[in-house]
Each structure stands twice: as structure tokens, then as C-alpha cells.
Amino acid sequence: xxxxxxxxxxxxxxxxxxxxxxxxxxxxxxxxxxxxxxxxxxxxxxxxxxxxxxxxxxxxxxxxxxxxxxxxxxxxxxxxxxxxxxxxxxxxxxxxxxxxxxxxxxxxxxxxxxxxxxxxxxxxxxxxxxxxxxxxxxxxxxxxxxxxxxxxxxxxxxxxxxxxxxxxxxxxxxxxxxxxxxxxxxxxxxxxxxxxxxxxxxxxxxxxxxxxxxxxxxxxxxxxxxxxxxxxxxxxxxxxxxxxxxxxxxxxxxxxxxxxxxxxxxxxxxxxxxxxxxxxxxxxxxxxxxxxxxxxxxxxxxxxxxxxxxxxxxxxxxxxxxxxxxxxxxxxxxxxxxxxxxxxxxxxxxxxxxxxxxxxxxxxxxxxxxxxxxxxxxxxxxxxxxxxxxxxxxxxxxxxxxxxxxxxxxxxxxxxxxxxx
Length: 421
Ligand SMILES: Cc1ncc(COP(=O)(O)O)c(C=O)c1O
Known about the structure:
The chain has helices spanning 27-37, 54-66, 77-87, 105-112, 131-137, 159-167, 218-227, 261-292, 329-340, 363-369, 378-384, 399-414, 417-420; strands spanning 70-74, 95-99, 116-120, 142-148, 171-174, 182-183, 186-187, 194-198, 211-215, 232-234, 246-248, 298-300, 307-309, 314-319, 344-345, 387-391. It is of the alpha/beta class.
């Protein structure tokens, strides 16, 4: 029998047809954007047209979707995190506990409010922040805990709120990667005091660049509104045409992180599609988990039992590298990518060793960051070294796409000797 040559080494790839597009846009999206373009108002900070602004309409719709009273829309997910911390009054002299395995913005948000991030290790099963590590890290300077629901699972939202409550420390949920997930019937972003979201291009609800913060707490929401609009608030009702919808309140000094009307209109269009896209991904992921069970050394990241809905930002496959001839996850990812014509990659490096996290290179951050932690984060390193990821758009297709992913991983596993030889 002719040898099976991996696509990485010049063989015929498992799949060469295109993957489902992301983001999804159609005539309705175009009409929504056109309406703003020709509607005479591109920013919430512009005079009212007499109709509700798209920004406020989206914020209300996003709050309703989550079953919480208040949402403040923002220009980026990073801003949403900064605002969440500012709204809690976190600042110089404070520390904030963050997981060492996350996108850099979770940590830079802490630096941007003048506080110091304290990195903690993650849970070996989920890759999300470890409850025991949070408990051990809390001290008298701790002003907030940021949990990150990473890739496609949620942090332990039974234990973490209980720890936070016991110590009287607010819990912020970084839901950039978890929009739509839920834990015992409560959606990600509604369990902590604040939930911060990103609507950047790759996220499951996107307008290119955008964000939002959710809260049940109306006093916190009032601060958030002002913090994101140069100390201005919405008027109670939509004002008549020509008048301003943002009016000076001045209870707390903010900066401008408002979402543009064009972006907000895209989000309103995309929000209508969210649930059916979540369902499509979840059904495909279930199939993927079943099929991967037949592949040696690979399985889908285990979904915590308490998650009753799983939103996939990046689909995570755990890889036993011993079953792949001892190849690194970087090499396994490259080989699977070559089979699929789809980006496949390991998680970002833990922040303590990440080239992204270099506060010493910026005087503003250097002043507050403190030295890089001397300790090791073995669980995060091990999780990173045994996981490969791909973007959720690959879960928006059908059975053919799932079979291709399974066949690609299987083929790479069966020919793993050629990866290390
Ligand atoms: C976990 C996490 N937090 C925060 C952010 C920041 O969001 P944005 O890129 O919208 O600023 C991201 C973006 O990828 C993220 O993944």
C-alpha cells in the first residue's frame, strides 16, 4: 500500500473546499448599515434625530437577551474590562486577580486603571481560572477578581462567586469568548457583579470592533454610562430631533469609549442571528465530540456538567502528545491545519512567559505592573502544551466539515511518526 503522506509533507489534504464564512452578513445587514449611513446620525454623541439611537437600542436589546436590567455598550471589549474595573473603583494601590491563561487585554485592563494584576494558575480540566489559586491569592490589597470563560467553557461559577462573596470582593466576568454560554440557567456575564464582552470580528457576536458591559446593579450602571461617555449619561427619554441624547452628569469622570451608530446597527442585526448560530455550533460540536472519541489521543475539551449551553469561540481539542509520537502541539496544529486549510493553533502562551505581556516596555504600565511573577504556572503551561484550537466558523457548517476535522486529526495521529522523524 502506498504510504499515506501528510498534507504538511506534500500529500493531498483531507479538505480543500472553503470553510463557512465569518461573519455572516446579508441584505438585512446591508439595510441596517444603509439606514444609519443615510439617517443623519453616526454617533450617539451627535444630536438626536428624534429616533432612539442604535447604541442605546442595542444596549437595551443585549440586556434583555441576558435578562439583566442594564447594559452599557462600548467601543471594544478591552474598554469594557477597563470600565468594569473603573466602575468598581479599582485604582492605584489595588491588585486584581486574573488568570495567567487569557488574552492579554484581561491583564492590560488592570494596568490601565493603575492597579496591579496578580496572576494565578488555571484549572487543569477547563483551562479557566483555578478556584484554589484564587483563594490562595486573596489578600488585603485584592479589589477585584476577573474570571475568564476561555475558548468554549466557563470557569467554575458555583465556587468562584462563593469565594468572592465570602471575602466581599467583586467578581468580574470576562465573557469576550463566552457570549451565549450559560451555567445552571444563568448566562455568562450575569453571575458576577459585571460581565464584560467583546464584539471584535472573531467573536460570536460581532460588529468588527465593539464591546459591552452588563450589570444588575443600577448604581454601577450609572457610573459605567458616565465612564464611557466623558461623564455624560443618556437622557431618560429619546430627546426631540436636534437635541443631545448624552447630557453631562459629572458624578464620575470618564473618557470616550462609545460605540458608533454604524457598529451598533450591525450588532442589532447580528443579535437576531445569535441563537440559531449558537445552536448550530453546539450541535456540530456534539457530533465532533462523539466522532473524536474514535481517534487515539484526541478529545474535545470536556464541557463542565453545570454548563447548560456552550458557546464556542474557539473549539478546543485536547491532545495527548505521546499518542502523536511526542510531537509538540505546535507541530500537531500545523499538520492538522495543512490537512484542513483552516487555521489551527495552540492557545496563547501563559502571560508570565508571553511576548505580549511586557509592561516594562511602556512607562505607564511599568510604573504599576511590578516584577513579572517569579513563580511557575505549571497547569497553564501543561494546558497550553496539550491543546489545539480552531475558530468557531468551522462549526457553522454541517456533517462534512465535522468529518473533515475528525479525519484530519486521525490522519495526523496515525502518521505522527513522520512529524518527529
Ligand atoms: C478573553 C478576552 N478578553 C478581552 C478581549 C478584548 O476584546 P477586544 O479585542 O474587543 O478589545 C479579548 C479579545 O479577544 C479576549 O479574548
